[in-house]
Amino acid sequence: MDAQVLTLPEQVQATEKAVELIRSLRAKHGELMFHQSGGCCDGSSPMCFPMGEFLTGDSDVQLGTVDGVPFFMSKSQFEYWKHTQLTLDVVPGRGGMFSLEGSEGVRFLIRSRVFTDEEIRGLRAAGRI
After folding, report:
1. CB 113, CB 84: distance < 8 Å
2. Does the structure show a pLDDT above 80 at 110?
3. What does pLDDT average to over the chain?
């Protein structure tokens, strides 16, 4: 009997609308990066920056990439969110004042779902959480 192989879920993914906006912003601004805001100036919003404009370091975790763009979050915030899959989406409205989509009439938004027990076991075994 073959052992069933669990495909590990992405910790961050993006909707088609988000990917379209990322590609538009990349065409205007070059390579990009995301950092999930921890609730300071712009609430708890995903913030999009030109690559390297927001400095990351040992206190940050890269959750993955969305359309080739790295997505970071602080380690302390990750401790609260590590059991959830984040989905980057776009909705009408004003973006964060420091985020590149701010002038586009839309804003990035995070939607989330809690991983299943099986997914959590797999992510732990893989050392991802």
Report:
1. yes
2. yes
3. 90
